[in-house]
Amino acid sequence: MKGYQKWSGLTLLWSALGMSTAQAAVEVVVPPDFQILAVSAGKLQDEQHATLADGEQQLLVRYEGVIPSRNSSENDRQVRSDPQVVRYQASNQRLTLVAQQPADEQAMVAYAKAPVVTLQANGQALDTQQDALVTSGMLIGMDWRARLGEYNRSGGKAALTMAGAATTVAAGNAVPAVATSELEGRLQQLFLQADPELRKRFVGWAVPRL
């Protein structure tokens, strides 16, 4: 029971490290083969759900297809796209990210190289702008929120306009409920208290989500 409680605590704290406390009114859901890495102004609920402020905002998402192994699930191969910046405009709506579903390994690999997504509200497609956020090198521990900010400063085609940037800055000025440094300290404490097997399970859970 103690092991389960520690595992739950580690999971919740890890998720909390990427959260902000901005007020928001747009709910976004992405399919299981996509991961939300960051949002311009809002809060990540988990890898497939986020809540964002009204107005012009951005999602940073990544396609993650799994190619099953014929021998064992341990040998499954993961195909990932470059992170995609998706800019949209919405207020008080529930949005769903819609993408084609590759049918086989070849289609997965091709789609990961050039993913195309849309956002829909009540079955109607929104006007969006999409652009790849090209990455290189080690991605473990990447601060995706910071990378999204760098992308906006570089003026990419899906960068926020001045109005959207003002909303993001205002939301970013909200005082966090729990300081990131405090959350990090609690996470480290729980990790050190866990037995070796639980640590391995946590690392195995966390690394693919970085």
Task: Report a brief summary of the structure.
Helices cover 34% and strands 29% of the residues.
The description of the largest β-sheet is: 6 strands, mixed
Number of domains: 2
Number of helices: 6
Task: Provide the gyration radius in Å.
Answer: 18 Å
* Biggest sheet, spatial arrangement of strands: 3-4-1-8-9-10
Q: Estimate the mean pLDDT confidence.
A: 80
How many E-type strands? 11
Straight-line distance between termini: 27 Å
Protein structure class:
alpha+beta
* pLDDT < 50 stretches: 18-24, 173-179
Instruction: Determine the fraction of residues in helical runs and give it as a percent range.
Output: 25-40%
**H/E element order:** HEEEEEEEEHEEEHHHH
Q: Shape from CA axes? A: globular
Beta-strand content estimate:
25-35%
Description of the structure:
InterPro entries: UPF0319 (IPR018635). Belongs to the UPF0319 family. This is DUF2057 domain-containing protein. With 210 residues, the chain is an alpha+beta fold. It has 2 domains: 52 residues, no CATH class; 144 residues, no CATH class. It contains 6 helices and 11 strands. The strands form 2 sheets. It has a 6-stranded mixed sheet, with no helix packed on it. Strands 2, 5, 6, 7 and 11 form a 5-stranded antiparallel sheet that branches. A hairpin with a 2-residue loop joins strand 9 and strand 10. Helix 1 packs antiparallel against helix 5. The chain is globular. About 7% of the residues have low confidence.
